[in-house]
Amino acid sequence: MKVIERYILRRTLAISAAALSWLLIIVWTTQVLNRLDLVTSSGQSAATFFSVAFLTLPSVIPVIMPFVIGIAAAQTLATMNADSELAVISAAGSPRSTIIRPILLIAIIASLAAFAINNTLEPYSRQKMRVILANANADLITTVLREGSFQKVVDGIFVQISERRPNGELGGIFVVDSRDPSLKLVYRANRGATLQRQSGNVLVLLDGEVQRQAANGDVSVIRFDSYAFDLSQFTNGDGVPTLYPKDRYLSELLNPDPNDRFYASNPQSFRAELHTRFSEWLYSIVFALIAIAVAGDARSFREARLHPIVATMTIGLLIRWVGFYASNEAETAPFYVYLLYAAPIGMIALCCWFIATHRIMELPTSWTERLVSQVQKLTDSLSRLRLTAGKRA
Asked: Rounded to 10 degrees, what is the CA torsion of 158, 163, 168, 174?
């Protein structure tokens, strides 16, 4: 590898590491916040919460990897262009491959890493997380419910107990079941207890009544001496998780078990996930080529309407959105499987054409002007806010 190629490689790697760190922190934080209910609603320990948070990392890294490569490549080339380094390299007679080769090398390594994570670490972490969440649901009624407060178990199911007695009994039990829009059930019992059976948890209600309210407003009340309320239907009481296609290893997608309940109900979802795994790893290469097509030529910044990073990310987001859309639709419509491959491969071909013909990839003028206008309005608004805040101070 030539000296200039090692120079570009080092700069791109340094920016990639910084971008990966910041994006990983931002995206991971949003994922972790979505799991706060595991502690607040399910009463699990902080250790369980951090275990789930750590297990979300393998699913986050492959998603942000293309954006990291795009930012790093665009920033490296834009900085080199601003410092006239690209012009010097071109004037010295070096071929364009001198600039392209180190960036593509990083993109290919990132793509292979994303493919490996998607098919090894991510299924493992997802399955471990499903087990933790299933066990949390299984423990919800027996250990978590707090005295004197309503607790949401699942959508439409709320449980409240007045007290926990020393002998293990529950006093003052109140259960609301509104899962069926046409029928609302309200259970009230003076006392009760939870029992564990092989099929799951059962809440035994003693000395109480059930109120049935139909959609037409008719209400009926039935008193009972004892009533068994099956909890396993919504708590997954045996702690066994349901595994979705995203939770499966590649071997399970290539050769699914015909007796698998989920596969039997929706085999197309397995095929869609398989083709998604085989196409998503290409996006790091796609973003790298977009950055090269946008900022890989020596030019004056006066010619550019947008900063190369903005143009690269905008084009990349559009093509990535097509991939996400095709992945979702392919679960029900087999036609979209072709779009899963057409989006990244077609963009790779288009970028190669721009690079080979020395054309600069840009957004349409109308899009650029509209985007610049919106950014200018936002900047002006922030400036006015700063001035107003300064006068008040």
From this structure: -30
